[in-house]
Design a protein that fits this description.
Layout: H1 10-17, H2 50-65, H3 70-80, H4 91-96, H5 106-114
The protein binds iron/sulfur cluster.
Iron/sulfur cluster binds next to helix 2 and helix 3.
Length: about 120
């Protein structure tokens, strides 16, 4: 029996042969993160002063610069409106790239209110 005579449609066969998601999306990229165990560097503590923030973010960004999943991480944060520093980008930098947070806090919140 040929495929044309088969009761199985070509669309069904195509679905069987094509995975629903790309294989890459099934791999947990966070297992390759350079920042494992260093979460405090990536999120601002309460009442952090600007100079301390700059020092903390510089250390975090140096880890991101050598991270093999930086681009994936950055895209994840942009698409999920994350807080903190992801993929070498802080909240302000994500905002300037066009990825606004749903509920901005701190400096970003004050900036939006005064605009
Ligand atoms: S890019 Fe930075 S924040 Fe993202 S996983 Fe790597 S080290 Fe962590």
């Amino acid at each position: 029996m040929s495929l044309k005579e088969s009761p199985i449609s070509e669309a069904y066969l195509s679905d069987l042969l094509e995975p629903a998601m790309p294989i890459g999306s099934l791999i947990d990229w966070t297992q390759f993160a350079n920042c494992k165990g260093k979460t405090k560097l990536f999120f601002a503590p309460k009442a952090e002063r600007p100079q301390a923030r700059a020092r903390r973010e510089a250390k975090a960004k140096s880890l991101c610069a050598n991270c093999t999943v930086q681009q994936t991480c950055k895209e994840f944060a942009r698409n999920n409106h994350e807080y903190g520093l992801w993929g070498g980008e802080n909240e302000e930098e994500r905002h300037l790239a066009g990825y606004t947070m749903a509920a901005p806090i701190g400096v970003r919140s004050r900036t939006l209110k005064s605009a």
